[in-house]
From TrEMBL:
This protein's UniProt keywords: Electron transport, Iron, Iron-sulfur, Metal-binding, Transport
Entry keyword annotation includes Iron: yes
GO molecular function: iron ion binding; iron-sulfur cluster binding
A Pfam family matched in the record: Fer4_9
Name the record gives this protein: Ferredoxin
Residues covered by the 4Fe-4S ferredoxin-type domain: 18-49, 51-80
PANTHER family (alphabetical): FERREDOXIN-LIKE (PTHR43082), FERREDOXIN-LIKE PROTEIN YDIT (PTHR43082:SF3)
């Protein structure tokens, strides 16, 4: 089973309260923004024109990569979703 097939069987229960929150000003001053390249769900988008980081938690796979690669500690909150929310992996 390849990664696309795995995602086809993945579902999300979205919590209105995000489980990851960034201080966007920290991202403006970051020198590599590794989250934009390492997040497998592409939750992070950097706009060079606007000098702005956008983060959408809806598709977060809860892998923890962004927490590890962020050497600026841009998170004002990083935790797993509350019980009953977040990603649900299903195997066929
Ligand atoms: Fe992306 Fe993983 Fe961070 Fe979720 S935990 S935002 S999937 S890098």
């Amino acid at each position: 089973m390849n990664i696309d097939e795995i995602f086809d069987f993945t579902s999300f229960t979205i919590d209105r309260e995000p489980h990851i929150v960034l201080d966007p000003q920290v991202c403006v001053n970051c020198d590599n923004r590794g989250c934009t390249n390492s997040c497998p769900a592409r939750c992070y988008t950097w706009s060079e024109e606007e000098k702005k980081m956008t983060f959408v938690h809806d598709g977060c796979l809860e892998c923890g990569t962004c927490y590890v690669v962020c050497h600026r500690n841009a998170f004002t909150r990083w935790r797993y979703p509350r019980g009953g929310f977040g990603v649900a992996y299903r195997m066929t």
